[in-house]
Amino acid sequence: MKPNKRHLDWMCIDIEKIAETDTDVDYKFSCNVSEPDPESRKNRRKVVGQNQGSLRISKATGEVALIAAMPEDEDNRVYIRAAAKTIGHWQKHEFPDKTMFACG
For the whole model, what pTM was predicted? Predict the structure, then answer.
């Protein structure tokens, strides 16, 4: 992470159900966006907003598809973690209203 760049917090991702049909479940996933705090003398960062994207998981197969990419998630790091978390729930036959991916 470069200190002069905006950063997505891919270690803490909120995941919330936004739609459900007999065949699929749609989730939005979101995380904080931070950037360097110009008032910090120790290169600290401050949260400046949240970005979000959305995905769809098939109830029958567990296949996940990206519906709307998250801005600034160029390498799909946030999407991949959100997808993995929803697949984990699918394996248990769960489709929770809210969940999260947390690392560390």
Answer: 0.90
Residues 25-36 as b or e (16 or more Cβ within 10 Å = b): bbbbbbbbbbeb
Domain ranges of the chain: 7-102
- Is 1's pLDDT higher than 80? no
Residue 20: which H helix or E strand, with range?
A: strand 12-20
What SS3 class is residue 60?
coil
User: Which residues fall within 8 angstroms of residue 9, CB to CB, at 6 or more apart?
Assistant: 31, 32, 33, 34
Q: 23: closest CA among 62, 69, 68?
A: 62
Encoded tokens for 76: 């799909």
